[in-house]
Amino acid sequence: MRQNAMIDEWYPVGLFSQLDIDGRKTALMGEPIEVALDAHGNINVKSSDGRFLPVCLRYGHIWSSLGKPRKDLFPIPEADQPGRRFVDVGVARVRCSPLRAVENFLDIAHFPFVHTDILGAEPHTEVQDYKVEIREEVDEVWATQVKFYQPQAAKSASGGITTEYMYRVPAPTCSVLYKTCPPRPGEWDVIALFVQPLAEDLCDVWPWMALFDDVTPMTDLIHFQQTIFLQDRSILENQIPRLLPLDPGMEIPTRADLTSIAYRRWLKRHHYTYGAQLVAQ
C-alpha cells in the first residue's frame, strides 16, 4: 500500500451530528477503522488492531489520521463568522481516486457540459484567463480571478450572473471554494470538499458549505449541492485511468487546466501519491 507522506495528514471520517455510541465502521487508506462516542461522550477512532488514532472535531466533521499529523487542521476563517449558515451536505461514495475527486472540483471548463443550465450553459463555454499560484507561506494551491457565467450560481440566485471564484487546496484531499454570494455581493459563499480516501481508487466525499442565505430551506440547500455532486460522480467514475496521473506526459492539459497542473506539481513535490499514478502504463 502506497501511503508515503499522506499518512500523516488529517482526513474526514464522519459527521459529528450522526455519531452515537454504536459508532461507524469505515476505512482510511485501506485500513478498517471505527468511529464512536465513549460513555463520557468523547470521540474515539480506533484502527483494526485496536490502536487509538488522533482525533480532531472541526467544521461539523470528525477528522483522524493513521499517522502523526505534523500540524493542526487547516483553518477556514469563515467557519467562525457570525451570520453564516453551515450546511453538512452528507456523504457520497465515489469509485475514483481521492485525488481525482479534488481535481474535478477544481475544474472550471466542465461547468457548461456537466452542470448544464445550473453552473454553466452554452454558448458561455470559454474559460477566461485567471491566476494560479502556490502560496509558499501557507503551502497551499490558490486560483484567483476566476470568472464564469452561471444560470444559477447558488440556490439563492434569482437569475444568471457572472460568478467570481477563488479555489484553495490546503491539503491533498481537501479543497475550499469561494464564490460570489448572490444575496451579499461583498461577501463570499464558501463550499468545501473534504475527501476521505477509503482506498487508492475509492473515496467518500463530504461536501460542506458556509453561506449567507437566510431564506432557502436547509433541505433545498442540501439537495442543490447533492445534485451538483451527483452529476460530477458519473464523470469521475468513468475516468481512465482511475488513479490521478502525475507524469506531465500522460495527459495533455489546456489553458483552462492551470489549477490542475499546479495541484499535480504540488502533490508530486510533497510525495502525496496515495491515489496517484506516477508513470505511464
UniProtKB/TrEMBL annotation:
It comes from the Bacteria. The keyword Zinc does not apply. Residues 94-269 form the Vanillate O-demethylase oxygenase-like C-terminal catalytic domain. The keyword Oxidoreductase applies. InterPro entries: Cholesterol_7-desaturase, VanA_C_cat. Gene3D superfamilies: Naphthalene 1,2-dioxygenase Alpha Subunit, Chain A, domain 1. SUPFAM superfamilies: Bet v1-like. Keywords: Oxidoreductase. This is Phenylpropionate dioxygenase-like ring-hydroxylating dioxygenase large terminal subunit.
